[in-house]
């Protein structure tokens, strides 16, 4: 609930002031009038101080914040609390920047706006799927059911993404560590050893000469290499933002060895789960397909689904429309055909989602199992190369004395 400062007068003309808690300014005014007070001034107490508002503009609402917001809101509404009361409670329980967002949503809803319209102002926070479900749920009067389904779906997505990211943390750490060690050796260690070798005029093996050559090149041009790396990365990022760039990158990502298969499983897991949620919530199949296509994380899949929606609109079964694209495994069209025949499309899609999630988890386990020994072999080869290139000349020098 919000807090309000008020100034009022009694019937006798006596001035009074104080604070009052209420869901909205209208309710606060109603409470004061019921106490036979004539309102002179009524001001909402701000949720956050001015200095916090200043820094709130630099923060953004994260994906996990949306998950928590949806779960808490679904729980309160299913418990029988009105939407405005639930939002008011959430506002005080949340931290920046979520509290600021909820405060603005609450203000819109209290002003007579729809919940969907208030969320639509945050299109970068709430996905098209999320907004479409809220709109249909609010229109049908089943907002509590839609929020519950959304909460479950978002929690499953978050758990799945967390598993995928955690599986790749170890290889990423090892790779970064190897690069850092190699740079330190090339820039700081090898030049000092080179000076030592030159003083003794030692005859150096080929591996040592090659290592010194690489070290000299890196030490002299590291700033240029860094500049080229930053410029190249920025150019690639800008190109990837273009329609043709993104289409090219997404196409080749799916064709990558091992990682391409894993990416396909991850995309199919989210697509089938989201489509099942939309259909279960009563959204027509063509509209649901277009929403899913817009939310897809890969242009190749997005274009295929959009084309499939056009064909379904002409009367072609979805199974046939999807089955002609090679990046959709045969099981997708087969299971969708079963769903179309039985009229249980949402159940079939949920089962498909579970199947692809299980497949993706197996792919991740296989990938991490294969990467760990591979990384150890690469690390061992690198260490062996450095030892032979650095220690062997020193051993030869000591043998001369």
UniProtKB/TrEMBL annotation:
Membrane-spanning residues: 167-190, 210-237, 374-395
Database matches in InterPro entries: GspF/PilC, T2SS_GspF_dom, T2SS_GspF_sf
PANTHER family in UniProt: GENERAL SECRETION PATHWAY PROTEIN, TYPE II SECRETION SYSTEM PROTEIN F-RELATED
Pfam families listed in its UniProt record: T2SSF
Subcellular location: Cell inner membrane
A GO-annotated cellular component: plasma membrane
Gene3D superfamilies per UniProt: Type II secretion system (T2SS), domain F (1.20.81.30)
One GO BP annotation of this record: protein secretion by the type II secretion system
Topological category with respect to the lipid bilayer: Multi-pass membrane protein
The name this protein goes by in its record: Type II secretion system protein GspF domain-containing protein
Family listed: Belongs to the GSP F family.
Taxonomy, superkingdom: Bacteria
All copies of domain Type II secretion system protein GspF, residue ranges: 69-191, 272-393
